[in-house]
Amino acid sequence: MSGDRIFVHVKTSDPISEAGIVAALKARAEIWISDDGQTTPETVALIVADEVDEEALQLLRTVRSRNMQRAVVVVSELDDAGLMLAVESGVAGLVRRREATADRLVQVITSVHRGAGVVPPDLLGRLLRQVSQVQQQVLTPRGLRFNGLTDREEEVLKLVADGLDTREIASKLSYSERTVKNVLHDVTHRFHLRNRSHAVAYAIREGFI
């Protein structure tokens, strides 16, 4: 019986690696190895690859197509480009193959199943540097931030949250009323929100303002 076990679906391009990991995890009481017919959005996909390359991304696309939303990747090598590619692809956990003991895999799988992200400590610094570079070199020159809001949108939403109407916001920011309305329309449309009140509530809840 699966009981309260975490469903894990193992996917590799190497049958020998897959057999070894499946055997190690099957021995653990916390884990239930699922086949293709047992996967759900709660299933944690465990992908084993030499590096985060097109082959690994294809394995990720395969598990996503089967409705698995959480993924852990075990890799032999991981450079900065592969690290960013993993993050961009929605990988929640990264483990180096040399550190992939059964205990470590269960620890990472459990954390990812609970909604956490897991990255080796030394890679975290590299990831933060990469994120900083993207912000400085790509987003900032375009007036964008990682939260998806421009400086102008953030200013307008803060003033809406303060209770100002369209005319007052336009006057305070030296914009036309049409510009303020367009900003609010863009935000509500992009984030699929109903109106300006919903936009403010969403921005506050997500920590954007």
Gross CATH architecture of the largest domain:
3-Layer(aba) Sandwich
Structural class: alpha/beta
Shape descriptor = elongated
Whole-number tally of structural domains: 2
Strands, total number? 5
Organism: Streptomyces parvus
Domain HTH luxR-type: 142-207
GO molecular function, one term: DNA binding
InterPro entries: Sig_transdc_resp-reg_C-effctor (IPR016032), Tscrpt_reg_LuxR_C (IPR000792), WalR-like (IPR039420)
What attributes characterize this protein structure?
Arc Repressor Mutant, subunit A; five-stranded parallel β-sheet; alpha/beta; 209 residues; Rossmann fold
Provide a brief overview of the structure:
This protein has helices at residues 15-26, 54-65, 80-88, 102-113, 121-139, 151-161, 166-173, 177-190, 196-205; strands spanning 6-12, 31-33, 44-49, 70-75, 93-96.
